[in-house]
Amino acid sequence: MRDFFKNIFSKKDTTGDKEEKSPLEILSYAISDVGLFTWYTADLPKYAQLEFNRTMLYFDPKDEQTPPSNQIALQFGNVKSVYIFNDDESKLPNNWLDLLTEDKLEPFDVNYDYFSFDGNEIQKMISEFKNSQKIYGENFMTINQNENFKIGFKAGEISIVIVAEKMKIMTHSGEVEFESIPEIHKEWWAYWRKYWELIDSENKLPYDPICEITIPAGKFKMK
């Protein structure tokens, strides 16, 4: 078993890259690889909040019988712009964002190829997104990108772009500092390895859906 886990894994641990990633780049990967977009709420322009689950970030479990929480909220303050988009083939009603806020829609799978905090990458995404609808504020292209936080992503059949002066990363335990993201991501990979090392033992960890999604190379577990 020990030799097996010294070999290559099917999922890439970004903390081990030779080229050091920024906290926002690591956060982008940690959310988008297998993440879910679960909720939106806002009091514009004061704030807009996006919530995600199945993130590759490690937060201590509340007890020994439950897996670690991987839910986070990105809270944008002093919002400059909110735009939403949906695919041509989407069957969602025009008020889908309101329905999501009211918990009347199922979560959306985040698209790994369309998730970024980088303005240039978001501009490219917008050129591909369809059926834009302004929720609040200015056009993304007219805003000074260097003075603001921004996010653009696609999840299932919908997409969102937000620009704001401030951004916080929140959990049920409070705010998470940007500088701590690389270590929290690294801790998740350590937890993931331990989860699979112990999976067939008497000391296996509580069932964790996100670990079950990210199966090590050569390890197939049928249930």
Features:
30% strand; six-stranded antiparallel barrel
Walkthrough of the structure:
With 223 residues, this protein is of the alpha+beta class. The chain has one domain. 22% of the residues lie in helices and 30% in strands. The protein contains five helices and eight strands. The chain has helices at residues 23-32, 96-101, 119-128, 181-197, 209-213; strands spanning 36-43, 47-53, 72-86, 108-116, 133-137, 149-155, 158-171, 174-176. Strands 1-2-3-7-6-4 form a six-stranded antiparallel beta barrel. It is globular. The two termini are 21 Å apart. Mean pLDDT is 89; it is low at 1-11.
Give the helix/strand layout:
Blueprint lengths: L22 H10 L3 E8 L3 E7 L18 E15 L9 H6 L6 E9 L2 H10 L4 E5 L11 E7 L2 E14 L2 E3 L4 H17 L11 H5 L10
Antiparallel strand pairs: 1-2, 1-4, 2-3, 3-5, 3-7, 4-6, 6-7, 7-8
Q: Span between N and C termini?
A: 21 Å
Q: Let me know the average pLDDT.
A: 89
What fraction strand? 25-35%
Main beta sheet: 6 strands, antiparallel, barrel
Shape: globular
CA radius of gyration is 18 Å
Side-by-side strand order of the widest sheet = 1-2-3-7-6-4
Give the proportion of residues in helices: 10-25%
